[in-house]
Every structure is written in C-alpha cells, then in structure tokens.
Amino acid sequence: MVVKIRMLGLFKKVAGREEILLNLSGELRLREVIERILEEVDGLRDFLLDPELKDPRPNTIVLVNGKEISLLGGPEAVIKDGDEIVLIPVIHGGLRIP
Fold first, then answer.
1. Residue 88: strand pairing partners
2. Deepest of 1, 16, 59, 80, by most Cβ within 10 A of its Cβ?
3. pLDDT tier at 95, thresholds 50, 70, 90
C-alpha cells in the first residue's frame, strides 16, 4: 500500500521536502507509520515526538485524510492504502511582558 505524508512548517524544513510517499505492507497503525517516517527522515524525531511520552500529539497536529487523529483512535488508528497523513507542528510560545 502507498501512504502519502505531507509535512508543514518546521517539519518540511527539517525533512527538506514537503511530501514523502511510503510503500508499506499489511495493516499498520499510525504509530508504526510514524516510526517509518522517522526512519525515512533523519533528524525529525527530536521535533516530531515528545521525548517523555514518545508520542507526537503534544508537539504535532496529525491529520489522517483531513481528520484529527484523536477522532480516529489516536496512534492506534488503522492506516489504509491511499491515506494521506498531514503533520503540522504546534508552535508554543508565551506572553511577553515588557
């Protein structure tokens, strides 16, 4: 099966490209596909995964076919042939008081 990964913002810059096409076999969960992405794109792990939780959700909005993964079962969501996964970095900031 073929899965399209689109990366926006910082992820696109780190990867040096906006899209990855992964050729995968069998039924996979999103967490397994994310591991494959991390194998494909050197240096992305530090930005994509929370270091303590080993989960992308605190740092990333993950969409599968336009739906946020919390609606699909989180990292256990089943990924199918032709699915599109979009990775959007969450920018954290604080209030600056002069």
1. 61
2. 59
3. very low
Residue 39, Cβ neighbours under 10 Å: how many? 11
DSSP 91: P
What's the CATH number of domain 2-89, 1.10.10.10, 3.30.43.10, 3.40.605.10, 3.10.20.30?
3.10.20.30
The pLDDT of residue 51 is above 80 = no
Q: What value does the mean pLDDT of the chain take?
A: 88
Q: Are 14 and 42 in contact (CB under 8 A)?
A: no
What pLDDT score does 59 carry? 81
How far apart are the C-alpha atoms of 20 and 3, rounded to whole Å? Answer: 8
